[in-house]
Amino acid sequence: MNRPLTRRGLLKGSVLFVAGAAVSACSTGDPLAKGGAAPSGGAAKITLTHWYHEYGEEGTQQAAMKYAADFTKANPDIAVKVSWIPGDYATKWTAAVLTPDGPDVYEVNDVSPNMVKAGQVTALDDVLGAEKADFNPKVLQPYIWGGQVYAVPMIVDPMLVFYRKSLFAKAGVSVPTSFAEFAAAAKKLTQGKQKGLFVGNDGVGPLGQMVPWSNGNLLIDDRDITYDDPKVVEALTAVKDLYDAKATLQGYSTDWWDPGALINGAAAMQWVGLWAVPGLIEALGDDFDAFALPPFGPGGQAVVNMGGWVQVVNGKSRNLEAAKKYVRWLWVENTAAQTDWSLAYGFHIPPRNSAAAQADKLNTGPAKTVMDAVAAHGIKQPALWTAEVRQPYTDAVTAIVKKDTDAEKTLAEAAKRSQDILDKVPVL
C-alpha cells in the first residue's frame, strides 16, 4: 500500500541467500551499500538483488527473507539478496535504476511509459503465462503498455469508508446511498469533539479525486485530460461545502491510513483500507463496517479505490531470465507465499483471484463486505494519472476547497498544465 507506515522494530539491511543459507550483506544497516558475495564453495552462479520498501507490518521482512531462501533452496544456482529500503523508497529506487547496478527486481505502485522507454522495466507476459487470466484485469490494466504487461501484482489494497455502527445508531444515521446523504451524515455525526469524517489531516485527502470519480469523471481519459468539466466543478463544490461545514477531522495525531481516529471516536467515519480490519476487530469487535463512497448523483458510480504494490523486473538486469524465473516462482506460481504475504502479517487481497477466493479471512464479517464492494465498485487509478500529471490538479483542489478560488477557472488553467505534461509522455 502506498502510505507511510509505523516501524515496529524491523531489522534493516540486506541479506543474501545462497544455496539456502543467509549471509549478512550489509553490516552498516545501509541497504544501499554494496557487499554480500557468495561464500567460497557456494553453488550459486547468479546473484539477484530484490528491493522492498520498508513495510510496517511486523514479520514482513522475515517473510521476504524466507521466500528468497526457499527459492534459492529450489534453485541453488541463483542467490537472492533481499534489501529492505527505509525512508523515501520512491526516490531511492528511481535513482538506483538510472544506473546499470540497480536492483534486478523491485516493487512499485505505478509503471509509466517513461519507465518502459528507459528500460527500467521489462515485459512480463511470459512470467504471467497462462495464469494471467487468474489476475483481476482491473488490477493488471494500468501496467499494460503496447499490449504487454510490465508488472506482476503482489498485494491489492482496497480503500473505502469505514464507520462506527454504534455512532450511526446513536445519531439516527443510515448508510448513505448518495454523496449528498454522505455529506449530511458527516455533518450530523459531528458532535462535540467528535467529527463526522476523517479523510486526512488536511481535511480533504482523497475526496478531491474520489468524489469526481463518483460523479463519472476519472479526470483523465487515455491521453486526454478531462477534469476541466462541469461534473468535476460540481463535485469539488460539494467537497468544499463539506470542508467549510467543519465536519472533517483535521490535525489528528495519525493520518488517514491509521484507523486510530475511528477506534478512539475522534471521527464516526474514516477513509481507510482493508489493512485496518484486524486492528478494528481487536479494538471494536463488531462495532464497525464499511461501504463504498456512494455515487455523487444520477449517472454517478460508487467507488472503491484499488491500490497496492506490484513487482517489476529491471530491463537493464544482467540476469534478466533468472530475475523473471524468480518473480514467476514467487508472485505467480507460489500461491501459498502470496496468501502468507497478504494475510499472515497485514491484511490485503492476494493478487491471484483463486488465492483470494480461498482465503477464509476474507470471506466473513467486514472483510467480506469490503470484498463484495471491491467486486461491485472497484476502480484502479488510470495508468497515465501519474504524480507529475496530477500535480496541477492537486494544487487546483487545494485552491478551490481551501482558498475560495473560482472552480471553473482554476480547473481550466490546471488542465492545460496537466495536458502539457501528459503530451510529453511517450506513446508506446
UniProtKB/TrEMBL annotation:
Residues 1-24 form the signal peptide. Gene3D superfamilies: Periplasmic binding protein-like II (3.40.190.10). Keywords: Signal, Sugar transport, Transport. The keyword Signal applies. PROSITE patterns: PROKAR_LIPOPROTEIN, TAT. The keyword Transport applies. This is Multiple sugar transport system substrate-binding protein.
